Amino acid sequence: MLTRTTTVGTGNPADVAAPSGTGRRATHRLSAPGTDDSVAVAIRDLNAYYGSFHAVGDVAFDVPKNEITALIGPSGCGKSTVLRCINRMNDLVPGARIEGTIQYRGQNLNARKVDAVEVRRRIGMVFQKPNPFPKSIYENVVWGAKINGIKGNYDELVERCLRQAALWDEVKDKLKESGLALSGGQQQRLCIARAIATNPDVILMDEPASALDPISTLKIEELMRELERQYTIVIVTHNMQQAARVSDQTVFFSLGEKRMGVLVEASPTRELFTNPRDQRTEDYITGRFG
């Protein structure tokens, strides 16, 4: 259990109003939180603050199960902030404050009694820059399982996770060597293997290929498509072509008043890139701003 208490939203699907002062309405439809089995995470009325700065305002969207959701938008619009809210990583930022609800398995992850460590076990994270530990490839994979008290055959766990991360054939004969000796693309796939070793439901990826060469980027994209069969994936990317290639749903953020991040549109990816509902979305994807 994540918590002893449960907070389940109610209400009918409705259009979501944009934050006050924007003069616009977000153009997407939402389910009632906790009522749709096809939704992995339901975000409602999410506001994020860093000290007195209102970084993200009134964000609401659903993350469908076993699909890839891409968060796009100009720099500073709150994409990574929203991503970090989903698994409580912003708890570690001094002065950060989060309001609103993030429903996962019928529970509000922002509730005070929710164990943030357990949230991060269920909702894993892969960062922009590969960050393997200064340990062997083998120990990198089993580290999360060990600290979370997961028992079993670690040899089988390592092979399974490295196969899922499309890395096994490249490293099976050097598992005792340092993960830091791998190439950048291999290191990022090792980090993905480490993330899935704790058996999460959701994997968050913050620009996972931005520091990689085109060939390594393609491997990461192919891997994401394989992983979505078993996991729900949310990625942040500045690469609109990447979002169009790999994601099923795209969520576009922009900047509102006082540089507050606002959600403009959440739509199936093909629809958003070919027939956006909001002029701001069209302006961004066609390069008129951003």
From TrEMBL:
One of its GO terms (cellular component) is membrane. It comes from the Bacteria. PROSITE patterns: ABC_TRANSPORTER_1 (PS00211), ABC_TRANSPORTER_2 (PS50893). SMART domains: AAA (SM00382). Residues 41-280 form the ABC transporter domain. InterPro entries: AAA+_ATPase, ABC_transporter-like_ATP-bd, ABC_transporter-like_CS, P-loop_NTPase, PstB-like. Keywords: ATP-binding, Nucleotide-binding, Phosphate transport, Transport. Residues 1-10 have a biased composition (Polar residues). GO terms for biological process: phosphate ion transmembrane transport. SUPFAM superfamilies: P-loop containing nucleoside triphosphate hydrolases. Residues 1-32 are annotated as: Disordered. GO terms for molecular function: ATP binding; ATP hydrolysis activity; phosphate transmembrane transporter activity. NCBIfam families: 3a0107s01c2 (TIGR00972). This is Phosphate transport ATP-binding protein PstB.
